[in-house]
């Protein structure tokens, strides 16, 4: 085990020693929107939106991408009653910095031909325009038959420089 993982395990022991919220219900408690955002370590959606443990579902992936999150969105909506989705992309996102060809080339360079063959055709879902990517993802979700028409969808940009959010759609 690396020293970094050992630090995480030690921190968990401290956390668990004082943990008192083991009886929270499975569905989100406060009917808050599901937050779909990027995995970027500079974003803390719970702190940014005042979400307490048990209050809301948070899905994170590279770029806060709706296509990548569809399975989890359906489970949250159909099995656990989520009625609203807040899609949140952010300034300075790494997904703005490369294209699919570049990503495939890096995999081949770093991991070899067989690794690249394994992911042949994979769309890494990069984007060149932040606000347009927000609009595109919200529109894509609206077009899904597996997302109920009654589910409210909104798209936002989080500014990593200020901690503020702004509505896009």
Taken in chain order, the helices and strands follow as: HEHEHEHHHEE
Strands across the major sheet, in which order?
Answer: 2-1-3-4-5
Strand content: 15-25%
- Under CATH, the topology can be stated as Beta-carbonic Anhydrase, Chain A
Task: Give the overall shape, derived from the CA principal axes.
Answer: globular
Q: Identify the CATH homologous superfamily.
A: Carbonic anhydrase
| Low-confidence runs of at least 5 consecutive residues | none
* Range of helix content: 25-40%
| Level-1 CATH class name | Alpha Beta
Mean pLDDT: 97
Total helices: the number is 6
The domain count comes to 1
What is the CATH architecture annotation? Answer: 3-Layer(aba) Sandwich
C-alpha termini separation: 45 Å
Structural class: alpha/beta
DSSP, total strands: 5
Largest sheet: 5 strands, mixed
Instruction: Please tell me how large the radius of gyration is.
Output: 18 Å
